[in-house]
Write a structure and sequence with these properties.
Elements (H helix, E strand, L loop, with lengths): L11 E4 L2 E10 L4 E7 L5 E7 L3 E3 L5
Antiparallel strand pairs: 1-2, 1-5, 2-3, 3-4
Length: 61
Amino acid sequence: MSETPKFKKGTVLRLNSGGPKMTVLLETNDGKASCQWFDRNGKMHKGDFDLEALSEFKKPW
């Protein structure tokens, strides 16, 4: 039985410790989210992060 994903594809996240906003590409079955983001120079990066290390980014307004 598969669990309901914590984050949907396209959700904007941030690491609990801070850093750039990231977009979820997919949530894996091993408790990670594959994300992409742009650095200050506009270069795109991709990485996998533990779900517990991520929080949904909430706009301040």
